[in-house]
Amino acid sequence: MSLPRAAALSLALALAALGALGGEGAWFAAALPLAAWALAGEFVAPPRISLEADRALSETFVESGAPFEVTVTVRNRGARLESLRVSDDLPPGATLVAGSTEWRGSLASGAEAEIRYVATLPRGFWRFGEVRAAALDPFFDLRSEAAVPCPQALVVPPKPLAPPKAAFGAGAVRPFAGRTRSSRTGSGIDFSATRDYSPGDPLRSLNRKAEMRWGRIIVNLREEGRAIDAGVILDSRASAYDDAGLFESCAAAALSLAELLLDQGCRVAFMSSGAGIDWVPPGMGRTQRLRVRRAAAGARLGNHATFERFEALPTRIFPPRSLVVVASPLLERDVAPLRGFAALGYSVVALRPDPLGAARVARAGRSDDEATCLALRLATVENRFLLSRLLGSGVSVLDWDPGLPFASARLLGETAS
Description:
Helix content is about 30%, strand content about 30%. The protein has helices at about 5-20, 25-40, 165-170, 210-215, 245-265, 285-300, 335-345, 360-365, 370-390; strands at about 50-55, 70-75, 80-90, 95-100, 100-105, 110-120, 125-135, 140-155, 180-185, 190-195, 220-225, 230-235, 265-275, 275-285, 325, 345-355, 395-400, 410. A hairpin with a 4-residue loop joins strand 7 (about 125-135) and strand 8 (about 140-155). The termini are far apart.
């Protein structure tokens, strides 16, 4: 029995007791409707909820922090519901930007109700589940609840960062094995050289300035780059990161670099390694871009004894002599495996978000704590030693301070030339 009906029955008993003590029938008359209402509620069935729900998302892929619209349409397949409340639960970490996740009112048989709101979500792979409904019989104070299935999935990859094209553009990847270049006259990508005109050369390749200077007909030669095979490995080991923010920066940078390589026409594979391995085989084009974004969105920090060391990574699934980019803050024990990757014939680039970012160094440098300053100096020395070992092993380093734009990253090593 609900609290209001229990209170009504108690009041009816009290009025009946007063009537019995005083011999007044008016007290019994006042108690009768209260007792009838309280007891009748025990024999009346609560409202029956028979609802269907459909969910529509404005996008199924949305960047981290970007707003998206959710529309939930609820249809009544049963009898009229006089008082109905329908609510949609947001996934953890979501922020409501506009609208409401709840609807209240009466819903006739066959009628529809709509919930519409705008929200944002952090990076991840999110699933929307059930819609909760509660119906109330206002006269007998009877309530019933139900969960209406309304599944939908949303992929939220990291927000793209402007990549360091000057350090990692088409010209920078020329030395990587797997990229072939052919000199030819006519339309091309990059200027290569000049030579004397030969019959059949297209007129658009003529170099008028060289002709005027040297007194003979000169044509320009251009080079066209063909696709390389590239693999991007995102380090998802929890032991490699001081905080979750550094991992989010690393994931965004890894995805941005993978998309840059896809834009250049490369065949790109993507791997996330932490508690397990999430592998996207090599591919090109729009479909591969969506696969890579989905993998980057689902990457999670974790630890597994098997994948705690880079030696366990199945790098041989990458095509021979391809480019391998490892996005990681890197630990001291990671240098030897990266050196092994290079020994196998891969062109290895370490995309390294510097854990000692300039902002963190500046804050620690202003500290009056002698221990903090000493720890900072030791960490700086270790950082320089790690970089020197990587560069000495033939591994190029894309060094980046996460406190600065990704476009400011510097490519150190042979590939920078």
